[in-house]
Design goal:
- By secondary structure, this protein is α+β, with helices and mostly antiparallel strands.
- The chain has a single domain, classed as Alpha-Beta Plaits (2-Layer Sandwich).
- Helices cover about 30% and strands about 30% of the residues.
- Strands 1, 2, 3, 4, 5 and 6 form a six-stranded antiparallel β-sheet that branches. It has a two-stranded antiparallel ribbon with strand order 7-8.
- Helix 2 packs across helix 3.
């Protein structure tokens, strides 16, 4: 059995203690609690000083690092985009400067293992240098735990008189 690890990084616009970062700092504990109680949550990296934010030094200034493990992509996606976390995510440009992309990397690891910060940053560098692969992949180009590419679903919109309906379909396999 495997779990999904994710790392994301963002360059802070100011130190966490700065007034400009108050909204972000105030959101950390409630969002951490929400993550910990979300279906499919397994683990997250905490900081040594108790505030739940891990900041890594970097040549361009401090970088916020989020590292967590989930039972699978659906659980991670539901937490990220279907809870109060989504509202905080929409405000990220207030707190974070433009960050080299991709800023998020995903990978599978055996259930029970916990990734280190060093491994997470190594996976992110790999994704940036080589693109998505089973070694490290993105939210848009994912792989299964056995290394097979995940076929993305696409939303198709058709017009019927004045109403719009959407149907999901899976792209045919590439040959």
């Amino acid at each position: 059995m495997h779990h999904l690890a994710q790392v994301n990084v963002a360059r802070l616009r100011a130190p966490l203690e700065a007034p400009a970062m108050r909204g972000f700092a105030a959101a950390v504990a409630p969002i951490d609690r929400l993550a910990a109680t979300s279906p499919g949550f397994v683990w997250r990296l905490g900081s040594g000083d108790g505030h739940g934010v891990t900041v890594q030094p970097d040549a361009g200034g401090p970088v916020f690092l989020n590292l967590s493990v989930w039972q699978g992509y659906d659980a991670l996606h539901a937490f990220t985009y279907r809870t109060a976390h989504a509202g905080v995510l929409k405000r990220r440009s207030s707190w974070f400067a433009p960050t080299p992309q991709p800023s998020t990397a995903l990978w599978w690891l055996p259930a029970g293992e916990r990734p280190s910060v060093e491994e997470a940053l190594r996976r992110l560098r790999y994704l940036r240098e080589h693109g998505p692969s089973p070694q490290a992949f993105s939210l848009r180009r994912r792989f299964t735990a056995d290394g097979a590419p995940v076929q993305r679903s696409r939303r198709v919109t058709t017009r019927r008189s004045t109403s719009t309906s959407a149907a999901l379909y899976t792209s045919p396999p590439r040959t």
